[in-house]
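Hi team, as promised in this morning's meeting, here are the two structures we talked about. I've kept the exact order from the run log so nobody has to guess. The first one is mostly here for context; it's the second one we should focus on when we meet again. Sequence first, then the predicted structure tokens.
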Amino acid sequence: IIKKKKTEIDFLNGKIVELGLKHGISTPVNQTLTCLVRFLEERLG
């Protein structure tokens, strides 16, 4: 984020969120981290 490069958040935490939704498993920490990093990427990048 500091170097204004896209992170790997979607491939890491985002995938966990996606799999959780698919299997009915709550992943609140991964969901929050994914949203926060995406926000920072858009805001700072």
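And here is the second protein, the one for discussion:
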Amino acid sequence: MALKIDLEKAFDQVRWDFIDASLQVAGHSICNTINARNWTPIRLSRNGPLLSHFFFTDNLILFGHADENQARVIRNILDKFYDYSRHRINSQKTNIFFSNGVDDNLRERISNFFGFQKVTNLGVYWGVPLLHDKVNNNTLSFVVDRVRNKLSSWDAH
């Protein structure tokens, strides 16, 4: 499962150094939880690295196995993140994605536990699609097209 978490924004009150410190603390909490074998990261490919999280300024993307114990562990980390940073999760903009093999009843229980909307596609982040299927030649063809268009507009001097 993947959770794309949107943090409530209050840009007029944001202290970026504090956000950076908060994300570092949350990252250490995740690493400690993984080392204690309470959180099981996922692999995006058979031989790929283990993946547990991506942190951005106003979004977090968390990965874990789709089971109720993992959901409780992730919720605990999110609660610690809030306790430290006071950054609230925007539940209305936060989504949870499940891979195809996850039972529908389990999907429902986990999404209800978090109070997040289930989605079949996490969409795009900063113009890059958050992929859920196998990558093929057409998946990122838009990137090649953009580069070609940019190059064709340059003078050949």
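Starting points for discussion:
The CA atoms of residues 2 and 63 lie 5 Å apart.
The first strand starts at residue 2 and ends at 6.
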